[in-house]
Amino acid sequence: MKKWCVILVLLLAGCAPEKAVDLQKDWDLLQPMLPEMLLLSQQQQQVLCGIHPADCKKTEVYLCADSLRADEVWLVEATDEGALERLEQAARHRLQQKKSETVLYSPQQYAVVQGAKILIRGNTLVLLVSPEAARMEKALLD
Amino acid sequence: MYVRKGEGCSPRRLQLLLCGMSVMLTFLCMAVMVVLGLVESVPETPTGPVVLGSSAPPGSFPTEGEKDNPFDDAAFLGDSVTLALRNHNLKTGALGNAAFLCAGSYSLRHAVQPGGVSVTWRGQALAPEQALQFSGARRVFILLGMNDLALGLEEALENYAALISNIRKLCPEMEIYIQSVTPIHPDFEGQRLNNANLDEMNLRLKSFAAKKGCQYLDIATAMKDKNGALQEQYCSDRQCHLTTAAVEVWLEKLKEVQG
User: Fold this and answer.
1) Which of A71, A54, A73, A75 lies closest to A62 in space, CA to CA?
2) A67, B84 contact by CB (below 8 A)
């Protein structure tokens, strides 16, 4: 009884361990708003996106199957705050790269990259590059 | 809950504030309970710090396939045409762990002059020879030139020569394959960028490759229709980009030199 009281108090005080991050659940929310996407392996994430595996606990990173589209989604849980900062920097570099690739030959894709969103929740970083980025952001914020 | 980066109260500050308030509330409740006799004391446990969100199962990352592929030692350097090959490889693994150093609108000029579009390796924008060195590739398949044709064939070949020279300086053992530029859809032909000029470029590239001690790989001929343009079935956008069927043709050509 006493033990239960202590647990109850701790729960009410908001000191329970943080709920495990469920990236798959977030991805399930986003997927219907996206075209066919390709899941990147750890090695591919590092080579193509600059996501260092040592900075990540869990990742779900997708590129658009259609190479002419800029769509890209990162859902990455960082190991700590420092790793989160490095991941955010990697996301910004990636966006810069996409901008320089599209600025001259694809104004439509350039606009998509311009509208990209970076969201943070605890140690989780989300990068949304999609014509539906605003709707995807709303789905995650809700 | 997610927050938009760079707006409103810092999430880190908010988290710290809430945590501080929670700790204070907990101590208050505990004190009340001790006074009321609900608990005598809280047993001490030798637990370490709680790592929030540490419930990730071990091995969350997918493991890489260990099967050998003849292209595991290869790198592909190119523009948006090569991006289609890269994505096909992401989907099928046909070229194994080959490195893809490619970017939309990348050109020979970009490859030899810093600034503008660049290829990246592990998130870093690099000169192609540096990216090749870091990738550990022993063979490079280059498909560049289409984005240079508007500037003229001579300048494109000068830049090609500079690129080969830069690669040789940094990676002297690198085996270099020059791939023919691919044909384009008739609707996309212009005054300078057209199939006749692309054919001319390929003729020059073939002799250039021989002169520079590189291999030449003709991937264009198999994609052409009877008029020398890109076949409808191989064009994804009525411009210059390739369908999966065209990429399959390309892969067949690569098999001829798979090593």
Assistant:
1) A73
2) yes
Minimal C-alpha gap between A117 and chain B (Å): 8
| Sign of the four-CA dihedral A5, A11, A14, A16 | positive
Q: What are the angstrom distances between the C-alpha of B16 and each of A121, A122, B10, B150?
A: 14, 11, 10, 57
Answer yes or no: do A59 and B39 touch at CB < 8 A: no
Are the beta carbons of A42 and B64 closer than 8 angstroms?
yes
Choose, out of A46, A100, A109, the residue to mutate when testing the contact with B (most B CBs < 10 Å).
A100
Structure tokens at B25: 């509330």
User: Are residues A15 and B91, on separate chains, in Cβ contact within 8 Å?
Assistant: no
Instruction: Confirm if B93 and A40 have CB atoms less than 8 A apart.
Output: no
State pLDDT tens for residues B185-196.
999 999 999 999
* pLDDT per residue as tens digits for the range A98-110: 999 999 889 999 9
Query: In this predicted model, what pLDDT tens digit does every residue of B135-154 receive, in sequence order?
Result: 999 999 999 999 999 889 99
Specify the DSSP class assigned to residue B254: H
Q: What is the mean pLDDT of residues A29-47?
A: 97
pLDDT at B15: 53
Please answer yes or no on whether B123 and A90 come within 8 Å at the CB atom.
yes
State the pairing for strand pair B99-102/B74-78: parallel
- Tell me phi and psi for residue B234, to 5 degrees: -100, 0
How far apart CA B141 and CA B154 sit, in angstroms, is: 21
The ipTM of this complex is 0.86
Tell me, what's the pLDDT at B114? 84
